[in-house]
Structures are given as structure tokens and as C-alpha cells.
Amino acid sequence: MTTIAVPSPATPGKLAFWISRNGPVLAIFALVFALWEIAVRALQIPDYILPSPSVIVVKIVVSWQLLLENAFVTLQEILLGFGLSVVIAIPLAIAVVYSRIFERVAFPFMVSLQTIPKVALAPILVIWLGYGIMPKVMVAFLISFFPIVINSVIGMRSAEKEMIYLVQSMGASELTTFLKIRLPKALPSIFGGLKVGIGQAVVGATVGEFIAAERGLGYLQLISQVRLDTPLLFAAVVVLSLLGVLLFNAVAFAERIALPWSRVATDVAE
Amino acid sequence: MIDNRTGPAAGDFRAGVPIRIAGVTKRYLSARGGEVHALDEIDLAIAGGEFVSIVGPSGCGKSTLLMLISGLIPATTGTIEVGGVRVKGAIGNVAIVFQRDVLLDWRTVLANVLLPVEIKKLDPVSHRRKAQELLRSVGLEEFEDKYPGELSGGMRQRVAICRALVQDPGLLLMDEPFGALDALTREQMNLDLQRMWLRDRNTVLFITHSIEEAVLLSDRVVVMSSRPGRIADIVTDDLPRPRGAHTRSDPRFIEHVERIRRHFLALGVLSET
Question: Domain A52-269 is in which class?
């Protein structure tokens, strides 16, 4: 069956199509949650071990303000860390592509740094930067930085030799070559890095909060754990997941806007 | 030298630029550090508006010669003049077509054809019209707003040729432009190219692996030997134009093809045993 979204003017057709496409996945989710609910009730599992889905939902509804406040803090850390990554990684990638020194020295150095588990740096960052938002921003930055810089470098190097010759033969300057060839050619790869990076930034910010924090969803989880408030712990997981999905889709949406041609290519491929 | 960039609109007769190559040698260091002697003492004069093909075994330096003429890479020794001007860096007034179409995936067909117009800052209005005419002349007027990802290989290469011709180049350098196409598309492209060349009369230097293609299209065929690349023979080909399917059965066509094939046998590029 084809997966191309056939534009149809009639809404019932669209709905039927949506159901036929997403129905099986939804059915599996519904089944899993139903079994979960039944099992917890039938086996009388206490809430502090495993709350049932209905308990979690009730918890989310009741504590929405608490969750929202803390989600906002975590979101801030993620966006600042990720933003910092983008602002630093892309110019750095340009430097690696254009400068021999950056290519020979800085890039291998960065790649070797990548082997350090960034999460392990979090306690050090706390000592340096304190309990506020900064150490979490830094962990989010460090962890999302590498996929962005590496993908950007690969993308900017992906222009064929002939393509470069072609524009040089037209008298293009290096700046024109970059703007008209290298950068657009690199965009699919850069967006690939951004998609990995945004997911990593969520992990970074949360882990940062586990180490030392006074606010945020990671902090809320830690508190819930100590209080054996397992339903709240699950509620935080749900909100964190929603946050991750939302941010990933925001990047994917930006990609669709920025790369109309790749959408065409995929449609044809399908 | 005629400045083709600022010439009046279509319809007038444009002469291509002459090329003079004298004592050109090219050596370069290979990736492994060894020295490669790509071209040795090449002498060749091409008249303005002439269609010259180069055939030769892989690695005979055909593509290198093309790049030297474009000025994108420098010769080790010798001089090259295009339109009476010594080549010292990238020359204007030239268009290159490669085996790979290297269309920009993120631009529509029309925007791809207009790329040289943007880079060279030519008049956008008149060239847009010219680009549309060119696309119509190769049967792609319906595809102006499509992206290259939606086109077949033959259509893509047609767009690449339109992109080259929109600049009114005095010199057209083509490096195995039809090498990746199927046989039928290739025959059609040969006829299209001849038609456009008869109309514009730019100088064309055309690299190919196909002896028949070279004889069908050219005024002269340069046969090269390899390592180092040297000119082994130049075959003058004065079959009447326009040429087409009927040309292939002309005894002179067969004679030229045989002559070039004998060179390849002598060079050991072809072997009958």
C-alpha cells in the first residue's frame, strides 16, 4: 500500500485515510494500555510500584500546574542549550570546511572529545556553574553539539567536484559558491543533525536536573521518587515525552518548510 | 573577440571563439604521492565555431585537457589561448557540461537553467525568456517548475545543456555528456545537440568514449593515446550536415570509424585476441 497522502477534497475520505493509516498503531496502543489497566487492578499492584494509566491521567489533570511550571523550566534549558549548539556548531562546521588548521587540528580534537560521556561532566559543571539553569544548559549544549557539527561538516563537503567547477567556470566567488551550492547542498544533512541534536538536548537537560536542581521535570522526578509518589513520577515522564515529541516535530516542520524539493524527491521515491 | 554576453537577442549569428593549444604538458601528484604525467606536449588549433571531438582510452588526459582550457586548473608547461587571450585563470565565455548533470536539487528546472545568469549577473528578463525558449526547444516547457528529482536522466541532461547554452557561450566544453544515458536517448540527444550547434555555431569540444558518436557529430576527431596523453591522430570529418540516422550507412562514416578503431587496436586499447 502506498503511503503518499493523496489530497482529497472530501473530509470523510481524509478521515478514512487517516484511520486506515494510523489505525493499527492506535489499536496497539489502546490494547497495551487496556492490558496494563486490567493487570494493575486484577493483581492489586500498589500505586507506588506501578500506577495504572487511569491513575496517571488523573495525576496529570490534578497536578497540571506543577507539571507545567517545571516543564517550562526544562523547556528553557533545552532551548538555550540547543540554540547555543546551533549558533556555535554551524559556524564551526564552516570553519572546518574552509580552514586547513580547523580541519587538521580542531576537527579531530572535537571528534576525540566526543568519546567523553557528556553526562559524566554534569557534576563538574555543577561545581563550576552552581545550582541554577546554567549547568543544565551546558549539558544540553555539549550533548547536542556533536551531531550538529559533524552532520554539518559532512553536508558541506558533499557537493560534487563537478558542481564546484561548474559555478567556478561561471566566475562565482567563494562566497557565492558557499551560498548557492555548499549551504543548500548541506541543508538535508544539517537538518539530520538538528533532529538528533534536539532529542539529545532533552536528555541533557533532564540528566542535568537529576544531578542538582531546584526546579524542572528532572527535579520533579527526583522529588517524586524520594516521596514514593510514583504516579507523579510517571506523569513527569509523560510530559517529558510530549516535550520531546513536540520539539522534534518543530524541527521536522522547519525542515519541510526549508526543503520543499526533498519532499518532492521522497514522494517520487515512494 | 566577440563578446557573446551582451549580444542582441536571439536570431543573430554568433561565431564561436578559436582555441590555440601549444606545447601543453600537465603533471600532478597523485594521492599516493607519485607523479602522474597526464598530458605531454599537446599542440592543437581549433577554429571558431568548429565541433571537435576527443576520443581516447580512459586515463589519456581528455578531461584534464578540458579543465586546462577552462582555466580551472593550470597547465604545467605550454600556453593555451581562447579567443586570442592567454588562459591564466577561469575564463568567462565558456560553459561546461559534465557526464553527471549536476543539477541543483533545490532549484526548479527553470531556476537551474538561470543559475549562470544569476552568477554572471546577466539581464534577468531577457535571459528568462531565452531559458524558456531553450527548454521548449528540447521539449521541456511543461517541466519549468518541477524539481530535478522528478525528471528522468535524459531530461536532466537536457536541462544541463540548456543551462550551458543560456549564457551564449563562445565555447562549449562537454565531458562525456551522454555517457550515462541509454542508447536511444543518446541518439536523440546527439541530434538535438547538432541542431542547437548548427543554430548557434559556438565552438564545441566534445569528449566521448563512443567512436560513432564522435564521427557523427564532429568536424574533426582527435584520437589520443594514454600515459602520457598524446595526440595520435586527427581525423577530418566532412560528411554533409545535417547528419542523422542515414549518415551511419554512408561509406565515409564507416571509413572514419574504422580508421579510429584501427588506432585503438594499435594502441592496445582494443584487442581482437
Answer: mainly alpha
